[in-house]
Amino acid sequence: MNHRVNKEMNRIVKQLIRDQSKDGAWRYPFETGIATDCSMIILLRTLEIEDEAFIKELVERIAGEQQEDGSWKLFHDQKNGNLTSTVEAYYALLYSGYRDRKDKDIQAARRFILANGGAGEVHQFLKIMLALTGQCEWPHFPINIEVMLIPDTFPINLFDLSVYGRANIIPFLILANTNFRKRTAQSPDLSDLFQNREVRLFTEEQDEELRSLTKWVKQGINGLKSHGNLRELALYRAEKYMLDRIESDGTYLNYFSTTTLMIFALLARGYHSTHPVITRAVQGLKAMTTRMDDKLHCQYTTATVWNTTLISYVLQESGFAYSSSPVQKANQYILSRQQLKYGDWAIHESTVLPGGWGFADLNTFHPDIDDTTAALRAIRTLATEQVDYRQAWDRGVNWLISMQNKDGGWAAFEKNVDKKVLNLFPVEGGQDLLIDPSTVDLTGRTLEFFGNFTNLDFHQPMIKAGVRWLLQQQQTDGSWLGRWGVYIYGTWAAVTGMIAVGISPKHPAIQKALTWLRKIQNPDGGWGESCNSDIQNQYVPLGDSTRTHTAWALDTLISAATTVTSEMENGVAFLVDRKEKDWTSTYPKGRGMAGSFYINYHCYEYVFPLLALAHYQKLTDGQLLTGEERR
User: Fold this and answer.
1) pTM of the full structure
2) Which protein family is it in (predicted)?
């Protein structure tokens, strides 16, 4: 078996080295379905930008994803098509001008939409897009723009929202408070898709719940004192918030949705569609496009830092020296992406210097905990030998330590942004948007970093608090729920994290998790989890095994083992014999927003199988790679 493992590791590594860019980074696609492709067509047509070759390519990709029943899906095993995705695609294809209502595929999409409740039943974010592009009236929104002026000392304020939620909601506040609408001569008429003429963001019950929450907000607004025009001041402040966070590529925080909303918000503020800020923003969005099987895709963001930190680390875990050429180049890129600016995170933790890493190539404003631990794993050896890496290491570790939440866990972006009262705000997917609480996967991976790459263990109060929080989150079946990858991912992060800091593999919680993993192993030796787990809030098997899910489960078993078990052997055989079905390689392994979009990280098919196989070789005293012949 060790020989077969070594052969598979070599195959993966050769592919990784072929795919490395000249600057040392890996630019694998960050794929999130068709939503961004559809939004890009709608945006370009609304701005009357005639980039026909670009639009035609997007049309081809969108049309190619349509199902036989006329719908579009979020993932392979979604039993029925997704209404929101289908309305998005229908709108974008008609607006492109390269499809018309007489096309049989368009007619099939229309039938699906009407049979499933019509356009008035789509996700809230699409309702907003339909309203601002003139396809329906603006739904009632109860919060005034003056919320921008509430000081951060007030019990509920904008900085109680997650950085991601805040970034999206601020341009939305401008749009909703101005009822901005923009139609063009090419706008299709979607009025026949609205079976209920009134489009609502919230149900009547939700409106009632909102009244109690918005009372606090209105109290804060009413307490503001100014001799000027509060509304105009608030609009100006919202505009300035966005403009102050434009990255070098022209995007607003390197996210597709925030940048698109910013463009529309600036139009609402009187900017012309050819204003340099808008032009640069559109160019920035187009620069984030990627190709997959020669098809164009508008990425939600780039995953370059994440890809590169993971791959540098896993190459070193598989035997490559830190001085080998691929690792050297990667680490130079990683060092150049450490963030040295203060961002919104400093509002909640003002006593520490910047030092984290972000997810995207050009992200300089909002570092995150997961990318920071990944970067630190990659540069760990260089930090003992070179001054610049040591300085980066110290700043990164200090920032990471300072970001621990008061409950003992770690969140994605900021510290203690976890006021649960905000979850009463009825935003679809709000638990993934409005607050930034401690999560199992972030906490587990942070503990794993501290345990394996520093001298910190469970005797330290900080680590002890993290372990205590993790143990409290375990599900009754023994699994843990991960924010960015659901149950197998969350269990992998929790177990490997606790073992790294010295918790015994015999601990009842860990044994319960291992029993659960063995129970859900497939007959082919692998593991596979459906995105339906996210929607149903319980583990749902995919029915087929994937390389990524198998690697997470296998690595979990290995981390708690002293000898090889039959479950491990079967998992390893699945990976080295490449038993997976072709479609599973493109199946989303990551959560974006619950029930709304899911993520296919293209690097995962290489990274995590290589990591699990390297750890298997270490457990069995098998041969690792040297990388010498690949310099």
Assistant:
1) 0.95
2) Belongs to the terpene cyclase/mutase family.
